[in-house]
Amino acid sequence: FIRAVARSYTVAGLHRALRNGDCPARRSAALALTYLGGGESIAAVGQALRDPDRAVRFIVENGIGAVWSRAGSMDQQHRLQRMARWNRCGQFTQAIDLGCAILEENPGFGEVWYQRAFAQFSVGDFEASVADSQQALETNSYQFHAAVGLGQSYLELEAVSNAIRSFQWALRIHPHLEFARAQIRRLEREQRERLDR
User: Fold this and answer.
1) CA 167, 171, 173, 175: dihedral to nearest 10 degrees?
2) How many CB atoms lie within 10 A of CB 10?
3) Which of 16, 68, 158, 160 has the most crowded CB, counting CB atoms within 10 A?
4) Could you read off the pLDDT of 30-64 as tens digits, one per residue?
């Protein structure tokens, strides 16, 4: 399917299909872009997180990370994959160091900012994680994981109002993100209970 689409459509054509096509066309375009799209597709795919069709949203939510990860050079993409593996394996210091090296070359690579924010959070450097999460969102305004991570870091810093705003930010990007909605409800309830005491 992907090979056939790549022969028949340009990435710009897939963007148009994802934005203006009927439901089957949007689903197909979403799937194709998760395999073919790179930095030029971040906005088109990110906007589809708000698509009225649940299947389109599901495809995008599960494939958008691959699009984000292709925003750098091939070498930077390979190093980002290594960085993500180190994060999954708990080798956070190595991930931070590699992230610093990649960002020196390409400070606009949003996924690297997010992965470094994740590593900073994991070693307990919540202020650095806040800064990196904000930078991830500055360079990729659809990085809803970074908005959630920002909220989690603010919770660790006991900045509850900032945490609520961060989870609301995540919902503006991805309105069907139930984790963020549940966090907002819980935190607002706790705030009301404190005020009622």
Assistant:
1) 160
2) 10
3) 68
4) 999 999 999 999 999 999 999 999 999 999 999 99
Confidence grade of residue 1 (pLDDT, cut at 50, 70, 90): confident
* CA–CA dist 104, 171 (Å, integer): 31
| Whether the Cβ atoms of residue 121 and residue 149 lie closer than 8 Å to each other | yes
Report DSSP state, residue 70. T
SS in 3 state form for 76-121? HHHHHHHHHHHHHCCCHHHHHHHHHHHHHHCCCCHHHHHHHHHHHH
User: To which residue do tokens 């959630």 refer?
Assistant: 148
Tell me how far apart the alpha carbons of residues 88 and 123 are, in angstroms, rounded to a whole number: 13
Q: Number of helices (H) and strands (E), helices first, in the chain?
A: 12, 0
